[in-house]
């Protein structure tokens, strides 16, 4: 992946080195296991933290901002690119895109959805409408998930921005309202469609950014597809449980995530991403 220009977004809170008070809040072995799964899926940390017990363990937060300056500049560039694309697409629909804030941190920090920890991976908090990312996740993406490359990292950021787009369009508020009247199994299905749409929106961003702010080739696309494939619910369950339980899916299968990202990348048409009513991925 090659940048066509060096614009960086200013809508960033850099909390690296702040230490977040130096405390990591844990809730026992069960919470740790769940937190690991949430990290792998890229999920909302409040689902874990708000149910955890108040046991505490002290941990010294990493303080090396210099070590990941390149990752910080890279993240700012990706954010700037998403801002340009979504501002334009919203304007074409007669709407105004409200740019989110991206919070970079190391170790632990606070969010509107609860305490954010390194183990949870990148996430979007709809309460404060901010994206949170511990920059060490980029190393995790390359080493644990075997998805190195700038475009794979861009996909991760663009997916979380996709959730902000859903918030702006009112989609996230509607699904939250549905949650009150559903069983956990029923809402899991809704959650899957929400996540797949965020994958689609990540593809839409890449479609419009190509040739404007980024230049990508087949190898770049492959790295993003590898990332999408690696964090599917089926792959994660197989790794952590040794078996696949579709009713417990919250993010979609690997094949579904790849499908919707590719569709967004190919079409660039936001109107083709109604994952809630479409069943074109039913057999994946």
UniProtKB/TrEMBL annotation:
Keywords: Hydrolase, Membrane, Metalloprotease, Protease, Transmembrane, Transmembrane helix. GO terms for molecular function: metallopeptidase activity. It is a single-pass membrane protein. GO terms for biological process: proteolysis. The chain crosses the membrane at residues 20-41. The keyword Transmembrane helix applies. Residues 49-61 have a biased composition (Polar residues). InterPro entries: Uncharacterised_pept_Zn_put. This is Metalloprotease. It comes from Spirosoma arboris. It is found in: Membrane. The keyword DNA damage does not apply. GO terms for cellular component: membrane.
